[in-house]
Amino acid sequence: MDNLTEEKIKKNRETWDRVSDLFVNASALPVWAPFGIGDDLGLIPEIVGKTFLEIGCGSGRSIKYLTENGASKVYGLDVSEAQLREAARCNQDAISRGTVKLLRSPMEERADIDPVDVVVSVYGFGWTQEPEQTLRNIFSYLKPGGRFIWSWDHSFFTDVQYKEGQFVVQYSYHEEQPIEIKDWRKPGCTAHITYRKTATWFQLQVAAGFKVIGYYEPKPKNLDHANNNPERHYSIQKAEKVPASFIFVCEKPAA
Predict the structure, then answer these.
(1) Rounded Cα gap, residues 41 and 38, in angstroms
(2) Most C-beta atoms within 10 A of its C-beta, which of 168, 176, 195, 200?
(3) pTM of the entire predicted model
């Protein structure tokens, strides 16, 4: 990992430590994305008795959902100490029983995790600064035949902006690049995200050894609770025109 990558991860960690309170009730399983997306897709075929890892576990709500529905073991990985404090508070009983284990580490670094049946990431994996290494890590965490299921902003959704009363394609879909967002969510917070085409995400997963067995671009749901200002990034009007999120389902080949 080079110095620039380490610096971006450090900045993102500092930002998440400061803004974590804004995301306590963010999308979490069984929902996979804003607008209530994904709770009807049944992407996890079985929870009872299965083992899980969540990449970017945030406030721990997805972990709680999994344990309450019969998961035998759930690991939660996150870079932010503040996020993990809330995840620990939320899953205190399961942690004391040994059902949940939380780890603070960048996803780009290999963590000490026993092989699991399923790795999930709800709007977490897309923050990676080294997708190739992160995917190698995830592949190694899975048992043969295990699945990696994750969601993220649809690439095209990012390109579309509201200007002068209509939605326009403001950025080139083809120009992949790192993005530095100043004052993200709170003054003085900086977020580092790399914009990638959907095809690039697909190719990265295949190169890591995964077989892509599912891909979804769900329609928005729960619009009554969404933002009604078309100028906002996650607006009802925008989500009704272009897919807000995508969801990948990948499988590690059986031995």
Answers:
(1) 5
(2) 195
(3) 0.95
CB of 184 within 8 A of CB of 220?
Answer: no
What pLDDT is recorded for position 226? 57
36 vs 28: CA distance, rounded Å: 9
Superfamily of domain 3-251: Vaccinia Virus protein VP39 (3.40.50.150)
- The angle formed by the CA atoms of residues 245, 122 and 22, to the nearest 5 degrees, is 95
Q: Within a 10 A sphere around the Cβ of 3, how many other Cβ atoms?
A: 7
Task: Give the burial class of 179: count Cβ atoms within 10 A of its Cβ; 0-12 exposed, 13-18 middle, 19 or more buried.
Answer: exposed
Instruction: List phi, psi (to 5°) of 53.
Output: -130, 135
Report CA torsion sign: 13, 15, 19, 25.
negative
Rounded CA gap, 212 and 250, in Å?
A: 4
70-110 pLDDT, tens digit each: 999 999 999 999 999 999 999 999 999 999 999 999 999 99
| Extents of the domains making up the chain | 3-251
Closest Cα partner for 216 from 250, 246, 240? 246
Parallel/antiparallel/unpaired status of strands 116-122 and 142-153? parallel
